[in-house]
Automatic annotation (TrEMBL), chain A:
InterPro entries: Acetyl_CoA_COase_a_su (IPR001095), ClpP/crotonase-like_dom_sf (IPR029045), COA_CT_C (IPR011763). Keywords: ATP-binding, Cytoplasm, Fatty acid biosynthesis, Fatty acid metabolism, Lipid biosynthesis, Lipid metabolism, Nucleotide-binding, Transferase. The keyword ATP-binding applies. This is Acetyl-coenzyme A carboxylase carboxyl transferase subunit alpha. It comes from Ferroacidibacillus organovorans. Residues 38-292 form the CoA carboxyltransferase C-terminal domain. One of its GO terms (biological process) is fatty acid biosynthetic process. One of its GO terms (cellular component) is acetyl-CoA carboxylase complex.
From TrEMBL, chain B:
It is an enzyme of class 2 (transferase). A zinc finger (C4-type) spans 33-55. HAMAP family: AcetylCoA_CT_beta (MF_01395). This is Acetyl-coenzyme A carboxylase carboxyl transferase subunit beta. InterPro entries: AcCoA_carboxyl_beta, Acetyl_CoA_COase_Trfase_b_su, ClpP/crotonase-like_dom_sf, COA_CT_N, Znf-ACC. Pathway: Lipid metabolism; malonyl-CoA biosynthesis; malonyl-CoA from acetyl-CoA: step 1/1. It catalyses: N(6)-carboxybiotinyl-L-lysyl-[protein] + acetyl-CoA = N(6)-biotinyl-L-lysyl-[protein] + malonyl-CoA.
Length: 332, 293
């Protein structure tokens, strides 16, 4: 049974009513087709009004939808062959981070992603997609392997954040993410990342330094979760909706800021409604990004990647030669 | 000689914050040590670079005080003072918050950056200041850091960054997060050019700053007792539903767990940095050549 989100409730109720009428028609032999048609038209309009203009908080809920495909779902669907590779060669294999080599449209690529579970049991095993340092170190190992064999890297981001646990801190969660940032900045192969669901803070960025950033239409990407922001701002974690409205975290916001390069369209109502369509849209987006990046030489590629991040920032630069606190330096 | 270090002629330099540092010593002649409770005369505290002579507790330091204590006297030249905080998300009350932080700290952002020398060795330096919105990293912090690192790479000299930060500047949203990548990219180029970067974590260094430039040094250093971590202590305790030991996330804890090269007492920091700079210069001398003597 499909999971319904709170704002989908009126639509779900209407669909239940339509089903009842249909059953009534069958069982009692009374023709209700006119009523059914009316309600179906109504349902269509209602769906349009709900999904055409989703609010940030609704997008957050869709982004966290338990039936949204996971990294492995996308990877296996996109690649004819995929070999999963495990472990950071140091501490353990982190099930919240997956990766390996696949053939994407006939071409070998390295694919890495944060991995959520499919059900409660799987989620406990996957730590709800929140990686430990060894997860980020496994990701880096696979990226360096990709560099060695000169194959592009695709990363899939869907995490509430890096895991805030005692062991994670002891083993250097900060250092692990920091290392990925500095290494990805100089990785000598094309890197394309996609935010498929939740882009949660530093834990997302730890896979997110790329030549191009793709983002699904209803995904979100934020420096802090809306709930945590609300807890800090208004001392009330239940005000996530208000925080989501304030923080500009949707794909559309990030595209407008020039941070996200391409929005990947979702099937009506979200990727969980039609996986095949979502996979096909994502595959096309990856292929197009690779075409753009393949056309560049290595130096140009790294220059472009540097410039992409270098120009991100919002500040005012006083144009006059004499800043506020300054005096002319004596020519000596 | 100073001029030779700047390939592009820079017309203006700001007044060294050193000049104002003396005025910012807290009023009153007495301070109580937060750890051992000893009463310390302000004069005594200053003499010990704001550390307790009895228990070694490190009091917090402002960026101007830090620059004063670290660089050769009169050597600091501030850059990029003309960058002012934006408000990309039109975040409620953010401009007012920034204005308040400015008035309270006397700084215009959470970092002061520029050029100076330690024992004659040239370097670029950036020092964060916790008083400015908890030393959080917004676009100006990221931009000043990126420019500082780029200048250091261009001029072929080392960079030292002193961190103290609550992490990201929430009010700048995704722009804040992306500063981590921006500064990392600049440090990548600095490293590729074979240049030295020293990160010094001071109390506290957390969140996105720990997950980027605080942990990317050729040397990662820290002051004794500094709290350094990615996630906050309370978040971890609520996640694992148990109390963490007192020493969790201290500099000494990180040293023991292999995350730091050394924990250096503030009184030893300047000579320590001078030694490291000497070991990374051509002949152990400032500018790689012997000065006349
Ligand atoms: Zn004391």
């Amino acid at each position: 049974m499909a999971t319904e989100l709170p704002f989908e409730k009126p639509l779900v109720e209407l669909r239940v009513k339509i089903d009842e009428l249909k059953r009534f028609t069958e069982e009692k032999g009374i023709d209700m087709s006119e009523e059914v048609a009316t309600l179906e038209a109504k349902a269509k309009t209602l769906a349009e009004s709900i999904y055409r203009d989703l609010k940030p908080w609704q997008k957050v809920q869709i982004a966290r939808h338990p039936e949204r495909p996971t990294a492995l779902d996308y990877i296996r669907a996109m690649c004819g062959d995929f070999i999963e590779l495990h472990g950071d060669r140091n501490f353990r294999d982190d099930p919240a981070m997956v990766g390996g080599v696949g053939l994407f449209r006939g071409r070998p690529v390295t694919l890495i992603g944060t991995q959520k579970g499919k059900d409660t049991k799987d989620n406990i095993h996957r730590n709800f997609g929140m990686a430990h340092p060894e997860g980020y170190r496994k990701a880096l190992r696979l990226m360096k392997q990709a560099e060695k064999f000169q194959r592009p890297v695709f990363t899939f981001i869907d995490t509430a954040g890096a895991y805030p646990g005692a062991g994670a801190e002891e083993r250097g969660q900060g250092e692990a993410i920091a290392r990925n940032l500095i290494e990805m900045a100089g990785l000598r192969v094309p890197v394309v990342c996609v935010v498929t669901g939740e882009g949660g803070s530093g834990g997302a960025l730890g896979l997110g330094v790329a030549d191009e950033i793709l983002m699904f239409e209803h995904a979100y990407y934020s420096v802090i979760s809306p709930e945590s922001a609300a807890a800090l701002l208004w001392k009330d974690a239940t005000q996530g909706q208000r925080a989501a409205d304030t923080m500009c975290i949707t794909a559309q916001d990030l595209k407008a800021f020039g941070i996200v390069d391409q929005i990947v369209p979702e099937p009506f109502g979200g990727v969980q409604r039609d996986r095949a369509e979502a996979v096909s849209a994502l595959s096309d987006a990856f292929a197009q990004a690779l075409d753009r990046l393949d056309a560049l030489g290595m130096d140009a590629l790294l220059e472009r990647r540097y410039d992409k991040y270098r120009k991100i920032g919002n500040y005012r630069e006083m144009t006059e030669e004499l800043p506020k606190h300054s005096v002319a330096m004596q020519e000596s | 000689m100073l001029k030779d270090l700047f390939p592009k002629k820079r017309k203006f330099a700001t007044i060294s914050p050193n000049q104002g540092a003396k005025d910012r010593v807290p009023e009153g002649l007495m301070n109580k040590c937060k750890r051992c409770g000893e009463i310390l005369l302000s004069r005594e505290l200053e003499k010990n670079v704001k550390t307790c002579p009895h228990c070694g507790y490190h009091f917090s330091m402002t960026a101007p005080e830090r620059i004063d204590a670290t660089l050769d006297e009169g050597s600091f030249v501030e850059f990029d003072a003309h960058l002012l905080t934006g408000d990309p998300l039109s975040f409620p009350d953010y401009p007012e918050k920034v204005q308040k932080a400015r008035e309270m700290s006397g700084l215009d952002e959470a970092i002061v950056s520029g050029y100076g020398t330690i024992a004659g060795f040239p370097l670029y330096i950036a020092v964060m200041d916790f008083r400015f919105i908890m030393g959080s990293m917004g676009s100006v912090v990221g931009e000043r850091l990126a420019r500082t690192v780029e200048r250091a790479t261009d001029d072929g000299v080392p960079v030292v960054i002193f961190t103290v930060s609550g992490g990201a500047r929430m009010q700048e949203g995704i722009f804040s997060l992306m500063q981590m990548a921006k500064v990392s990219a600049a440090l990548r180029r600095h490293a590729d050019a074979g240049r030295l970067y020293i990160a010094v974590c001071t109390n506290p260094t957390t969140g996105g700053v720990t997950a980027s430039f605080a942990m990317q040094g050729d040397l990662n250093l820290a002051e004794p007792g500094a709290m350094i971590g990615f996630a906050g202590r309370r978040i971890i305790e609520s996640t694992i539903r148990q109390q963490l030991p007192e020493e969790f996330q201290t500099a000494e804890f990180l040293l023991e767990h292999g995350m730091l090269d050394e924990v250096v007492h503030r009184k030893d920091m300047k000579p320590y940095l001078a030694t490291v700079l000497a070991m990374h210069s051509k002949r152990g001398e400032p500018n790689g050549h012997r000065t006349a003597f």
